[in-house]
Specification:
MetI-like; Carbohydrate ABC transporter permease; transmembrane; mainly alpha; membrane; MetI-like fold; globular; 314 residues; 2 domains
């Protein structure tokens, strides 16, 4: 009898759940929520897929099938052209422009410039954020308000004064000239780290002061280890930002020893002896240029999201 009663009760509860209108609405809401998520993912990933599709297409045949979702006449030619491994005859046979750039040199220039900016900026910004968050000094909040106002100033307004400064210092056409305006600190970097530093338990710092630790030792041995995930996240975000920068490197770096990869790809696009840009070659170059960013996001993507949430940056 007990088993029969149990089965009857379970059947009754199941029938009750099936008849519950709120449960039906919940299922519908979940379905449309997941459908919306799938649509957003497809919209986000489609440009990346289209870059892959174009990068492995024959540039001449591609225009005959512009709506094809698969590479048109699959070929490695675009990658070879942008890396300078294809002859002019091979490039022209596939609809390429015959243009070439010093891809390896530009890649090394980009790595050098972005690394220089990131290392110096994160180092000095973390010190400034520590001073704004955990040190008490006269006028601290007023000075920080100035930094917040600087966040609202469009970067285009600082191009001319920065260019004049770099020119007067004789740093045009150099990696240091490209890095100088942002290599020490930026308002965003200071704000990002300050938000996390404000959450550090002050009792830890007070205990260190009682033990005789100075501010430099507290910063180096306590604050930096506690904030290391946020510091790494900031470094990755800034590296990605300056890796994709175009206008400032274009203005300052015009020599082969200072051109960055974004500038080089722009030059590759503009070299059109046959009248039409080599879109397949351009997408191949963009694909190679995006590889370091893809790797960073795959390895540190979860850490970046978590650190941004803990820092209160929305």
């Amino acid at each position: 009898m007990t088993i029969i009663a149990f089965k009857a009760g379970r059947a009754a509860r199941q029938a009750s759940r099936e008849d519950d209108p709120s449960l039906a609405k919940s299922k519908v809401a979940k379905f449309f929520g997941r459908l919306a998520l799938v649509i957003v993912i497809l919209i986000t990933l489609f440009p990346i897929y289209w870059m892959f599709r174009t990068a492995f297409s024959n540039n001449r045949a591609m225009f005959a099938e512009p709506l094809s979702l698969l590479p048109v006449d699959f070929t490695w030619g675009p990658l070879k052209r942008v890396l300078g491994l294809a002859t002019t005859e091979e490039a022209l046979a596939e609809g390429g422009s015959g243009a070439s750039i010093n891809f390896a040199q530009y890649m090394l220039n980009s790595i050098a410039a972005c690394t220089l900016i990131t290392v110096f900026q994160v180092t000095f910004s973390s010190m400034a954020a520590y001073a704004f968050a955990l040190l008490n000094w006269k006028g601290r909040d007023k000075v920080f308000s100035i930094f917040l106002i600087a966040l609202m100033v469009p970067g285009i307004f600082t191009l001319l004064p920065n260019f004049i400064l770099v020119k007067d210092l004789g740093l045009l056409n150099s990696i240091l000239g490209i890095a100088l305006p942002t290599m020490f600190m930026t308002p965003f970097a200071i704000f990002f780290l300050r938000q996390f530093f404000l959450g550090i338990n002050r009792s830890i710092i007070e205990a260190a002061v009682i033990d005789g630790a100075n501010q430099w030792r507290i910063f180096r041995t306590i604050v930096v280890p506690l904030a290391w995930p946020q510091i790494i996240t900031l470094a990755i975000l800034q590296f990605i930002q300056y890796w994709n920068d175009y206008l400032w490197p274009f203005l300052v770096g015009q020599s082969e020893q200072s051109k960055l990869l974004t500038v080089g790809l722009g030059i590759f696009k503009s070299q059109t002896p046959q009248g039409n840009p080599d879109w397949a070659g351009l997408m191949a170059g963009a694909l190679i240029a995006a590889v370091p960013i893809f790797i960073l996001m795959l390895v540190f993507g979860r850490k970046i999201v978590g650190s941004i949430q803990s820092s209160g940056v929305k």
